[in-house]
């Protein structure tokens, strides 16, 4: 069985680091904590779990800190987490099974990273990241902000997932780092351009975000999935500016980079539904269900591949007077969100209509 070193970089994480380390204590054979300047009880809490606590002077460079943390590892494989990440009990068991059975020739293992959840506990957004890597390969982190781990060789996907559960964070930190990079004249990689645009968009600097998304796409050097996200983000930006034609043009531009993803299909479905072109909307929402995605490393808007197209198809088929189909799609949506008030109201509405139709012996086309 392989041995595992957990490597983390932390700063002022007293509210969450115990929760994280509790969730990994059965998994990790060694815990390495690299502190970048905590002034709270973070290091004291970490000391309850490990004596391998190291200091690293923060230099506005996440890759440098993470590479330093990896240098402290001594086990066969390195697992990395942030302090506000956790393994649920289910995922702890999946990880332990992975640990027992992993072929030591595997160089890196990816896991789903669940980023957000709805009130039902369903994952609403996620992506895959390489979480477990063979130490002897010496894989390096790249990028001062939104850093990534460059891996290659024998790669494997795992069913285990990491859940991101922040309580709070410095919402302006990444934007500050990028702005400092820009003011000091540092060159931006295509990845930097994309993530800087994301930070600008998240902070409501829409026009500047548009500028940097366009600069990113103009490089023609980005990852295809980031290209698609950039197009969707541009659509969001133009939507916020009330420019619907430009919004739609950027949704359509995602098709330059490959078959339509579920999110693109839902966006196109909504654009047709707004125009009351219901049949075209049905086409695209059905495509969203077909194009659910796979084990890609790409960011996934889970709603667009689960309950949302079913809910919208319920609306569409209701408008078309096909209430049995509408009811069925609403039931499918309820499987994902069984307490959603909209879907429960729809359920009552459709059951009343279908009962009336059964009583009258024919399809009832009410006022649409």
Automatic annotation (TrEMBL):
One of its GO terms (molecular function) is transferase activity. CDD domains: Beta4Glucosyltransferase. Residues 5-127 form the Glycosyltransferase 2-like domain. Keywords: Transferase. Pfam families: Glycos_transf_2 (PF00535). Gene3D superfamilies: Spore Coat Polysaccharide Biosynthesis Protein SpsA, Chain A, Tetratricopeptide repeat domain. InterPro entries: Glyco_trans_2-like (IPR001173), Nucleotide-diphossugar_trans (IPR029044), TPR-like_helical_dom_sf (IPR011990), TPR_rpt (IPR019734). SMART domains: TPR (SM00028). This is Glycosyl transferase, group 2 family. It comes from Bacillus mojavensis. The gene is sunS.
């Amino acid at each position: 069985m392989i041995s595992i070193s957990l490597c983390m970089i932390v700063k002022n994480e007293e509210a969450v680091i115990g929760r994280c380390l509790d969730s990994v204590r059965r998994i990790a054979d060694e815990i390495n904590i690299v502190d970048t300047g905590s002034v709270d009880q973070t290091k004291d809490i970490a000391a309850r779990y490990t004596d391998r606590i190291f200091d690293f002077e923060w230099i506005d460079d996440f890759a440098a800190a993470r590479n330093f943390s990896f240098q402290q590892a001594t086990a066969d494989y390195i697992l990395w987490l942030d302090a506000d990440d956790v393994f649920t009990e289910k995922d702890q068991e999946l990880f332990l099974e992975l640990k027992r059975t992993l072929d030591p020739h595997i160089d890196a293992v990816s896991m789903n990273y669940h980023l957000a959840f709805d009130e039902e506990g369903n994952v609403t957004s996620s992506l895959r990241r390489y979480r477990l890597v063979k130490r002897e390969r010496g894989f390096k982190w790249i990028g001062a902000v939104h850093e990534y781990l460059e891996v290659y060789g024998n790669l494997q996907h795992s069913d285990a997932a990491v859940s991101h559960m922040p309580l709070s964070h410095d919402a302006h930190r990444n934007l500050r780092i990028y702005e400092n990079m820009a003011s000091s004249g540092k060159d931006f990689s295509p990845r930097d351009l994309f993530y800087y645009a994301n930070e600008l968009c998240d902070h409501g600097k829409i026009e500047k975000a548009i500028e940097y998304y366009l600069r990113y796409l103009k490089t023609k050097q980005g990852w295809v999935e980031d290209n698609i996200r950039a197009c969707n983000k541009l659509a969001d930006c133009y939507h916020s500016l009330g420019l619907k034609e430009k919004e739609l043009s950027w949704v359509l531009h995602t098709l330059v980079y490959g078959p339509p993803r579920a999110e693109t299909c839902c966006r196109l479905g909504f654009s047709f539904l707004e125009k009351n072109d219901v049949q075209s909307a049905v086409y695209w929402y059905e495509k969203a269900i077909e194009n659910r995605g796979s084990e890609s490393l790409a960011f996934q808007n889970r709603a667009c591949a689960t309950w949302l197209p079913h809910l919208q198809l319920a609306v569409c088929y209701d408008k078309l007077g096909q209430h049995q189909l509408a009811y069925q799609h609403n039931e499918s949506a309820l499987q994902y969100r069984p307490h959603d008030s909209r879907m429960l109201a729809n359920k009552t509405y459709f059951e009343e209509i279908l009962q009336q139709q059964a009583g009258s012996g024919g399809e009832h086309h009410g006022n649409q």
